[in-house]
Amino acid sequence: MTSVKEQEAIRKLMVFLQEWDSAHKVARSRILDSFIKSSNGKTEPELELEFSQGASLFLARLTAWLRMTYMYSTCLDKLLKSIGIFLSAPSGRRYLIEFLEIGGVLILLEILGLNHLKEEDKRESVKLLQLVANAGRKYKELICESYGVQSLAELLATSTSAEAQEEVQVLLDSLGRGNPKYQNQVYKGLVAVLPCASPRAQQLALQMLGVMQDLVGEAPPALVEPLLAVLGSVHLEVQYEAIQLLKALTAHQVWPALLMGLVALLTPPEKQPLSFCNKTTEDPNALCLREPMLAYIQQAAAAKAVGILAKESAEVAEELIQLKVVHGLMVAVGNQDHAPSQRHGSISLEYFVRTFPFVEEHVRKAVGHTLFQLFMDSPETWYTKLDPAQAEELASNIADIPKDMARKQSTEG
C-alpha cells in the first residue's frame, strides 16, 4: 500500500496534469516558464522526484503538443527548451528514447525547413538535435538517415542568425566524428554550402572541411570548383579559410586540379564593362559584383595563395612554375584596375625570383633592368611605381619558362 505522503504526491501530479490538459496557450506558456525556471539542469532522479515518479507523463504531453503545434510557432521556443530539460538530464536516457519513439528527430528537422518560423526556434531545435547526437553513434546515424545533413546544410547556408549557424556547426562537427557510415555525407553537405551567399556559412563550412579532411581521406573532385570560387569572396576571413583548406589538400588526388585552377585564376578573361543588376534591388542603379571585379578578387586571392603554398613546399613551388605561375603573377602585377592583385602578385613573384635563379633571369629579361631593380628594392610597393605602359607590358608578358626547368634546378640543387 502507498503511504499517505505518496498518495498526496500522486494527487498533486494528477492536479498538475489536469491543469495542463485544460489550459489554453497563455496558461500553458506560464506553466512552461515556471518549469524552465525551476527545473533547468536537474537530473533524472530529481525530475522524477518533482513529478512523483511521473515525469514521463509530462514529457509525453510536451511532445504531443509539439507534434500538434510546431508548424504554428505556438510557444515553440519554450516548448523546445522544456523538452531539452528532459533530454539533457543526467541519467535520463529513457527520456531521449521516449522522445525518439514519437518521431522527435523528424519533427526537429522539419522545424529547420519551415521558413516562417523564427531563427530562435530553429536554434533551439538544433540544440535538441545536438543532445540526440551526443547520445552515441546510432543516434547520429538516425539523424543522418532522416536527411538531417541536408536540412542542416541548408539552414547553415540560409540562416540570418550567427548564433543559429554556430549551433549548426557544432552539430555537423559532431555528426562528422565517430560516424564512419555517414561522415562522407557530412563532408559533401559542407561542400554544398560553399556556393551560398552567406560569408559566415562559407567560413564555418571551410573550417569544418579542414577538420574533416583527414577523417574522410580523399576529397571528392566536386570540391575543386566551389573551393576556387570562394576565393572570389570580398571577406578576408573566407579567403583565409579557403587557403587553409588548400594547404590541407596538398597530398590528395584533387591537388593537381586545384593548382591548375589557381594558376588559371591569375589570368582573368578579357575586360568586360560592368553590368547593371537585372534583379530588383534597393538601388536600381547599383552595380553588380560581376566580371571583371569578381575575377579580379579571385586573381588577387590566387596570387596570395600561390605564394603561401609555394613557401610551404619546394615541390609545390616547382609544380607551380611548370604550370606557368610566373607568367600569371606578372599578369596580376600589371592589372592596374585592381591594386590587391598587383600587391599580392608582386609579393608572391618575389619569392619565386629569390628562390629560383632561372626565374630571376626570365623575369629580369621580361621587364628590363630598371624595372627589375625597382621590383627587387621594394616588391610590396613596386606596383605603385609602374606607369600605364609598364603595367600593360607586364599584363601582356609572354614570359615562358620551360616546363622541365624547375625540375632541373631542383635536381642540381
From TrEMBL:
Taxonomy, superkingdom: Eukaryota
Task: Return the protein name.
Answer: ARMD1 protein
What Pfam families does the record point to?
Answer: DUF5578 (PF17741)
Q: Give the matching InterPro entries.
A: ARM-like, ARM-type_fold, DUF5578
Query: Which gene is this protein's source?
Result: Armh1
PANTHER family with a match to the protein in the record = ARMADILLO-LIKE HELICAL DOMAIN CONTAINING PROTEIN 1 (PTHR34258:SF1)
